[in-house]
# Entry
Amino acid sequence: MQSIFLVPLIFSLFWISGKAAVKRRPDGRIVNGREAREGEFPYQLSLRRLTVHICGASVLDGSWAITAAHCVDGHERQPHEFTLRLGSVKRSSGGSIMTVRTIYKHPSYDTTDMNFDVALLRTQAGALTLDPNVAPIKLPEAGEAIQENISAIVSGWGHMSSTEPMLSSVLKYTTVMTVNQQKCQNDLSFHGGVSEAMFCAAARNTDACQGDSGGPLTVQGRLIGIVSWGVGCADPYYPGVYTRLSHPSIRRWVRLLTKL
Ligand code: ARG
# Structure
């Protein structure tokens, strides 16, 4: 008897708290993120195609940036269409703009299931460190495990929710927790599951979203993941999926090309 009343009550509570979370932060892009201060994420780049922001990327050194393969897929023969904005928390102003010279997609990248969703972008030598607010991010070791349930930071100019497709004008960031690989596999089993070259991270009411792809997920100043895909954004049932940079095939490929 009691549960007949409890069920709708609980559902409406969830509904109300969901609305409130959205209302409280009308500007919370990433989903419910916080605004970054200038210079706070010196490795964060905005990847632009034909001057329009399409994805995030990260600085590896003076001439190399890393992003998701799906961000450049189909256009890798036109690297000159791509530019990087560096050293600015503003998506459309500040810092400087560099052109991409060469695009390298991971050789095993698979468009259908997003496996090995990583690409390297080469610019003119030294181009990525010409700005005072720009600094490289360190990479993990090949084969290094990702501890489960540790907090990681993701940043980007992506959408504030899956229903409000609007990019943020200022860089946002949020904290998510790494998810046990088997749980991640189970959670996403109806969506193809996850490979060894992917891992999940999630937190309540916050997530990366469209436009954050290719951007960094870091733990203690090291780039462990790249924003890759998800089912909606900040959906309590679906964690965000990231490319696993410590996967031996990814890490060795990065080293081969960049010597890093
Ligand atoms: N594929 C998206 C992009 O191109 C990123 C999606 C991330 N989604 C998530 N729920 N974490 O920007």
